[in-house]
Design goal:
heterodimer, A: 269 residues, two-stranded antiparallel ribbon, 71% helix, elongated, B: 249 residues, mainly alpha, 12 helices, 80% helix, 0% strand
Chain lengths: 269, 249
């Protein structure tokens, strides 16, 4: 393993630009951000490998499924760049697999669930009064998440350099992953019911009582058994399709659309 | 025929095309507030654009495109709603614009799915380029991946603005009630995919207790998001600290 620096500042800048702007430009259901990630690494491979065959093989290694929060991805991309630079190719691939899930949870939570609603209420209030600062505020708030990608890339790149060749490095990565996983799962556990609360059943039935009848809403019965039962079942069903049935995300999506339509026609949803 | 000429429809269509590509880059261009404002500038009624953008933004809060989930497209809806509302003018402009915008936002979920699925074809193009050893061609395929994304927004806006209110009304009215309801249900069900994808990446089989804690805190105690994040963070540090064998960082 050589510790020689092969990537100059200009190459790193070019890579950061590629990743930070275009990571999601070929987002698709099959591999999501994979192609964008591989595309962004090409300038490094041109410097690190002499033959076209080697470069193609290196790009091929990064064509596996990848999806995370695009701003958090800058950290992963920075670290992967540094690892590729030291020819630690296995580490570069495993850092992606290890970090993408937890970082997606953290990034989506911070941006879409904490920041956007708070800023959105303020911005919508301004706009409703006829102020142009409404849209400007909304734009700046989202743009902030783009701007931080550059320092995050540098941070990931530098941190990773410091970790190479030290066994302690694996400990740190594992620890960060674990913290991110626990935090992410606690938050997602609460999000599933809060974001999908609108999924309810309109079913109701009439029950005879002494002295009359009473209409009982099925949703109240379900809530009594387990709050937000339907959202949990839907997420569980999708999870089962993805993991046990090995469905692709696209197939799982089509299954959900079928469930939604059939449920709505039958009157269950 | 509608109230706008070819040129206005084209300008708004181009904005719709580039706003989603900008959003993919992370620039906040596909926000209902931003697009409502831009459309207001183009059709000469900024106040209406701001109003419609504000209403749609409030409807969209709490919806997030988790793990590539599809949510109603309030951005495209803001463009079409503002244009149609401004054409009608008068006291009911906002009401009319929103009346068009909301079904459009729901209908656009189908086109979002189509756009995300069509891009898969460009992914395969890139793979074939790789097999041929042609990296330049792979780069082109990646950048061209923006085309289905842009067109899935640009074409409906162009056609909608060009056709005008009467035609859109006819289309909306022609959609049967069961289909409209089905689309609404679909819109609220689709986030399940994003969550399931995230959970599968985070090894739920092993780590399910943490998700259960989050669920119980929200469902039974009504803890808001920030509270969940604090509890999760504290829990994460306590658990990782109490396990030996990891170097103190």
């Amino acid at each position: 393993m050589s510790n020689e620096r092969k990537l100059d500042q200009a190459t790193l800048r070019k890579m950061a630009l590629r990743h930070n702007i275009s990571l999601q430009w070929s987002w698709n259901y099959e591999r999501m951000q994979a192609l964008g990630f591989a595309y962004s690494l090409i300038p490094a491979f041109e410097k690190l490998y002499d033959t076209n065959e080697e470069r193609v093989a290196a790009v091929q290694r990064h064509m596996q499924f990848y999806n995370t929060h695009p701003s958090m991805s800058a950290i992963v991309f920075g670290a992967a760049t540094a690892l590729e630079e030291s020819y630690a190719t296995d580490a570069a691939e495993s850092i992606k697999i290890g970090l993408m899930g937890p970082l997606a949870g953290i990034g989506d939570t911070l941006q879409s669930v904490l920041m956007r609603p708070i800023i959105g209420v303020i911005a919508a209030g301004l706009a409703a009064e006829g102020s142009v600062f409404g849209p400007i505020l909304m734009f700046i708030a989202q743009f902030f998440w783009f701007a931080i990608r550059f320092p995050l890339f540098n941070w990931g790149y530098k941190k990773s350099i410091g970790l190479i060749g030290e066994m302690v490095g694996e400990g740190i990565i594992n620890k960060v992953t674990e913290i991110a996983t626990i935090l992410g799962l606690v938050v997602i556990g609460g999000f599933v019911p809060s974001i999908m609360a609108r999924v309810k059943t309109p079913l109701a039935y009439t029950k005879a009582f002494e002295g009359g009848e009473k209409v009982i809403a099925m949703q109240d019965v379900l809530d009594g058994i387990l709050p937000y039962m339907i959202p949990l079942l839907l997420v569980g069903f999708s999870y089962w399709l993805l993991t046990s049935k090995k469905f692709s995300p696209l197939k799982t999506l089509l299954a959900l659309i079928v469930v939604a339509f059939v449920g709505s026609i039958v009157g269950v949803l | 025929m509608g109230d706008y000429g070819f040129l206005t429809a084209l300008i708004l269509g181009i904005w719709a095309y580039f706003s989603i590509i900008g959003a993919l880059a992370g620039w906040g261009t596909a926000e209902a507030l931003v697009s409502g404002f831009i459309t207001g500038l183009v059709v000469g009624d900024v106040k209406l654009g701001l109003e419609i953008g504000a209403t749609l933004t409030l409807m969209s809060l709490g919806m997030a495109t988790y793990g590539g989930a599809t949510i109603p497209d309030f951005n495209t809806a803001a463009i079409i709603g503002t244009a149609i509302g401004a054409a009608a003018g008068g006291a009911n402009a906002a009401e009319l614009g929103l009346g068009i915008a909301i079904p459009v936002a729901l209908f656009m979920t189908q086109l979002d799915v189509l756009g995300r699925a069509t891009t898969t074809f460009f992914m395969h193009g890139a793979e074939q380029a790789l097999e041929k050893g042609n990296l330049k061609s792979l780069e082109k395929w990646h950048l061209m991946g923006t085309i289905p994304w842009g067109l899935s927004r640009g074409i409906p806006v162009f056609l909608g603005v060009l056709a005008g209110q009467a035609v859109i009304d006819n289309v909306v009215n022609a959609i049967p009630a069961w289909f409209m309801h089905g689309m609404r249900v679909t819109g609220s069900v689709l986030p399940a995919l994003g969550f399931a994808l995230l959970l599968s990446m985070m090894n739920l089989n092993k780590n399910w207790p943490y998700a259960l804690i989050g669920y119980a805190l929200f469902a039974y105690l009504g803890v808001p998001t920030l509270g969940l994040a604090f509890i999760g963070l504290a829990l994460a540090f306590i658990i990782t600290k109490n396990r030996g064998g990891v170097a103190n960082v």
